From TrEMBL:
InterPro entries reported in the protein's UniProt record: MFS, MFS_dom, MFS_trans_sf, Proton-linked_MCT
UniProt protein name: Major facilitator superfamily (MFS) profile domain-containing protein
Domain Major facilitator superfamily (MFS) profile intervals: 1-406
UniProt KW keywords: Membrane, Transmembrane, Transmembrane helix
Species in which this protein is naturally found: Magallana gigas (Pacific oyster)
Record-linked Pfam families: MFS_1
Record bears the keyword Disulfide bond: no
Amino acid sequence: LFALNIGSSLASNRTYIILGGLFGCSAYLISAVIKDISYLILSHGVIFGIAYGFSYGPALVVLGRYFDKKRGIASSLGNMGVSVGSLVFPPVIRLLLDSYGLRGALAVIGGILLNLCVAGALMRPVTFYQDKTDKIDHGQKVWATNSDVYDSNKVKIPSNDEKENHIIKADPINYYNLSNVVKNSDIIQTSSTQKQKLQGLDKRIQTTKHLCKKVVHFKVLKNALFRMWIPVCFLGIIGCVQIVIFIPPHAKDLQISDSDITLLVIIVGASNFISKILLAYFIYINLMPKHILIALSLIITGISCMFISFYTNFVTMTILSVIFGVFGSVYFGLFPAVLVDFVGLEHLSGAMAINMLMQGLGLSISNPILGFLRDMTGSFHASFYLMGTTLIISGAILFLEPLCRRMEIRRTAAQYLQTQIDIQPL
């Protein structure tokens, strides 16, 4: 939320991705040396959470701004790294644990996370690719972006002398009003230096207010399509993230061997990889709207969870792993492109921040509930039923898109008419 809203005015997405790599490495290194498990709340809970927020959201925003017509394909292929990681990391982590133990494995993984810094450094801002000409005159530039050329005579950057003159001449009314209000006090002196200090203080106050307003982009909440999306991301994230976490312990309860459990996780990653390729093809041929693809995938994944009592051995658990690998990753591959379709590129950062906030709330609330159900019932069946229910509900909500789009069109039309009425001369 910080990096995508108020933080966006303090540093670039590129910077936050690099910071995410540093925080992620620090989290694992701290986890490798601590001796009290309670400190894991700080290292893996807080510090790694900051790393995730600093790297994941800004990376999606950068990816969304790089592409226009092929944004959906780019999002799907960009998330293919998750699939590759699911294929590679289970055996790598197993090897690290066998070779270096838990602490050594955590330290090595922390070093691997430093690659985020390299990835962030390669994510140049879109403005880098704009054609820039040299300065024509002091305080003037011509900027050329594709076919649009802006004349420097129309857009002029003031020189330093002009800025100083502007500061000296700036708004004497506020100063004299303040002098009248506090004329019986000697706190404020009517000197030129004090005047400039007051003006600087006022500017800082206005800047602070502006930054506070940017903590949450409330304007995007007026969008009916985005309001529909909020419960989708809140409920859908529960199953999309938690199922792959609950598959190994459930397989353990079924007396499946550790090597076969590792194979199940690899199968999820392989199915995920193939799914991303097929998803990119479906988007390319425009088979159906992207939000419908997400809706169907959520519902299918949810239904598969409802049959958890029938998954009793390695073969049936393989079926669940394939279904989740194929359909459970569609949400992550397409939701950035769907957000752009719903709110527009100019509101993507604010929408992404709220989206990640709701996802975090969904996971924070669901984790203890899913664990409580396991402790109360003695099995993971109730937990899978809950995840399946949330997935089906979130998928069904997306079929309300036509209704919400009509509401948004009416709102936009009314706002446009109000604007036209306001600018009409009397």
